[in-house]
Amino acid sequence: MTESKRLVWHEVAPQGAKAFFGVHHYVTTGTTLPEEMIHLVFLRVSQINGCAHCIDLHTRDLLKTMPADKVTLLPVWAEVPHLFPDQYRAALAWAEEVTRVSETHASDAAYAAAAAAFAPKDLVDLTIAVAAMNAFNRLGAPFRLPVKAQP
């Protein structure tokens, strides 16, 4: 199967890219959320959405500061609660709920759990992070951004 060459979205629409990266910059530098938590959420959202570029990128970023066991077991984080602190598990649960919003409708139970784990501004910032990564995945996957992984 031959893959067609796809547009490089951020080169074709640099102003749009600047806006997207502005949100990313806010999430990664302008919130009080732990950086490691943000990157775990980025990776988990990307895994759900199947964005190869983002999975590759965020896995590599996390492996610089996190044991490989935790990164490897992220897709099944709920089955290995001893690997992730309570607030990280709450963030991952909320990230999954928001990413699958067409199925979950961001249930009252999920919202209550997230609201119990985060201060109001942190919950909004976490939700912005989830929304931003979902948006990046919806650009990375369709335009087939490259991965560093090689055979």
From TrEMBL:
Q: Which Pfam families does the record match to this protein?
A: CMD
Any idea where the Carboxymuconolactone decarboxylase-like domain is? Answer: 14-97
Q: Which domain of life is it from?
A: Bacteria
Q: Which residues cross the membrane?
A: none
Which protein, by its recorded name, is this? Carboxymuconolactone decarboxylase family protein
Species of origin reads Sphingomonas citri
